[in-house]
Amino acid sequence: MAVQEAGSIGIVEIRYFTFAAPPNELQLECGRTLGPITIAYEMYGEMNADKSNCILVCHALSGDSHAAGRYHLDDPKPGWWDSMIGPGKAFDTDKYCVICSNVIGGCKGSAGPGSIDPATGEVYALNFPMVTISDMVQAQKALVDYLGIRQLLCVVGGSAGGMQVLQWAVSYPDMVRLIIPICSTARLSAQAIGFDAVGRQAIMGDPNWMDGNYYGKSIPSIGLGIARMVGHITYLSEKSMHTKFGRDLQDKPNFDYDFLTEFKVESYLSYRGDEFVKRFDANSYLYITKAMDYFDLAQPTGDLRRSLSVAKSAFLVISVSSDWLFPPYMSKEIVSALRRNNIDVSYAELQSDYGHDAFLLEVDVMTRLITSFLEYGQPAE
Amino acid sequence: MPDKIRPEFRCIVDMVEPGSSVLDMGCGEGHLMRALQVSKRARVQGIELSDTAVQECVANGLFVYHGDLDEGLADFNDQSVDYVILTSTLQVLHRPDFLIMEAARVGKRCIISIPNFGYWRVRFQLMCFGEMPRTKNLPYEWYNSPNIHLTTLRDFRRFCKERGLRILRETDLVLGEDMYKVVPALPNFFADYGIFLLEHE
User: Fold this and answer.
1) Final residue of a domain: which of A243, A275, A290?
2) What total number of domains does chain A contain?
């Protein structure tokens, strides 16, 4: 066996599962159907005999099924939540079997606008139906059923992943023991919808976008890059940006008085934009941000308490003090609705300057909270 | 953990009926909740402002809400919890009267414990030396004390009477490091700590 980093799950592989072949297509919330559907997923750790130690990790907007480990020895970057998943980590792969799948509508192996429509043999592009958070969860449920898991020990995720987590608690209350939404919300604020709209407009305003039919041609990289830059600002806090960049200039002592990159923060954001364009499909960005915008767990009654009344899991809700995209009051709204339903819930607000991104960065505190919650957390009888 | 809890917590645990639901307001690291869970099979939850204390609670498998006490009670229906507990907390609150009534609204019963400002050592320091009292229970200087609403046992009893709160049980103590002594007579003078079991009339 290859030399393994301490605490790393090591070499992992992506797997695929296909379901909903016609005529058993998946009924989507928008009224349309989708099928066949391929789901890309990864698994870390072993299932126990009765498959009662399985944890489903739901990724956020720009994430994918690659939550931990590396694909090969020279892989420069581990999965996006490698700090939390692995032997001896919060999601301890010596004890638990951790599963992470790419959402439908995504671009990392699961069915999305960039995949081939089997009906036409062409790329879906905008013919891909609009998917919602609850559709994504339906697809995850199909995967969980396929894996033969009757009940998940835990469903966890941050941001848009947290939305899926909440949807799980409501859609399949008997199938989840523990629920951990992190830096998430039961419904997006107008401000967050606004930022999503700016990102989409940047993509759709890029001449290369061509109504989504850019596959095999030049991609709308400028638009997608701008969308990522805007998004990235919302993931940081004012304070963390100030600490990280201040007003420092990029590799020079004085202003050049031009429109090229002057400040460090400009350079950093363009770098983030460029990196993102290399790995993400612009149409998927449109679809997933839309799914986030549509998500409102309080519907159809408008009463979040009533929606959550069906939940049977125990909850650990985590927010971050400096998160202005999904501020703590949104998490408290969830907690309040749960408590009014007499559902067991712990609420912790992390004191951190990292903003929304803290859910990827505040590893120590989150490990402390989650390790024990997984061990002791029990839904009420 | 239950074996090394604060001595006054043992009295509080004794006041709780087995199998009850309990809300501990200002639960700290959850020692009392844990003791209630273990020895009374209580269904416990807490509210706590300190983030490290909240982490400690979760680490011990307890359900806790991270936030202010006042915001913590709005989610609870009337008489929805068997016991609401406030230990050594009243004196640091801005509106203790409001919170006591909220506790009495949410809890079928309340257990409230207070350091007694009528304790003879306290009186003695003020009378004989003319100094702000400092005791084991009230160790602060005048300028750094978080205690803004101190009370005596007598004041507290009068408050309960005025607000329609029946005192079902009162245990008056002198607290030591790991032990307590029950004060049988003249508690407002000889006890430095009082525990009240209350019920709305």
Assistant:
1) A290
2) 2
Minimal CA–CA distance to A95: which of A105, A103, A82, A86? A86
Q: C-alpha angle B110/B114/B120, rounded to 5°?
A: 145
How much is the average pLDDT of A335-361? 94
**Residue B64: closest C-alpha in chain A:** A346
Angle between helices A221-235 and A190-204 (to 10 degrees): 160
Q: Is the pLDDT of residue A255 over 70?
A: yes
Return the biggest CA–CA distance within chain B. 49
> Which of A133, A144, A162, A141 is CA-nearest to residue A98?
A144
Cβ(B56)–Cβ(B76) under 8 Å? no
Backbone phi, then psi, for B189, in 5-degree steps? -100, -40
Residue of A nearest to B54 (CA): A348
Find the mean pLDDT for residues B152-171: 97
Residue to substitute from A180, A346, A369, interface B, most B β-carbons within 10 A: A346
Residue B154 sits at the chain A interface (C-beta within 8 Å):
no
Task: Show the domain range for A233.
Answer: 192-290
Token representation of residue A109: 């192996």
> Tokens in use for B147?
């205690």
B54 and chain A in contact, CB less than 8 A: yes
| Chain A with chain B: Cβ pairs closer than 8 A | 60
Beta-carbon contacts of residue B129 (< 8 Å; ≥ 6 apart): none
pLDDT digits (tens, 9 = 90+) for B55-87: 999 988 899 999 988 776 888 999 999 999 999
- Is A131 within 8 Å of A104 (Cβ atoms)? yes
CB-based contacts of B65, cutoff 8 Å, min separation 6? A335, A339, A345, A346, A347, B45, B46, B47, B48, B72
Are the Cβ atoms of A339 and B65 closer than 8 angstroms? yes
What is the sign, positive or negative, of the torsion defined by CA atoms of B77, B83, B89, B90?
A: positive
- The residues of A assigned a catalytic role are 159, 323, 356
Q: What CATH number does residue A233 fall under?
A: 1.10.1740.110
Domain contains A10? no
Examine the pLDDT at B102 and tell me if it is beyond 90.
yes
Average pLDDT for B94-120? 95
A227 and A357 share one domain: no
pLDDT digits (tens, 9 = 90+) for A44-78: 999 999 999 999 999 999 999 999 999 999 999 99
DSSP letter for each residue of A74-131: T-SS--TTTTTEETTSSEETTT-EEEEEPPTT-SSSSS-TTSEETTTTEE-GGGSPP-
| CATH code for the structural domain at B2-118+147-200 | 3.40.50.150
The alpha carbon of residue B57 is apart from the nearest alpha carbon of chain A, in Å, by 9
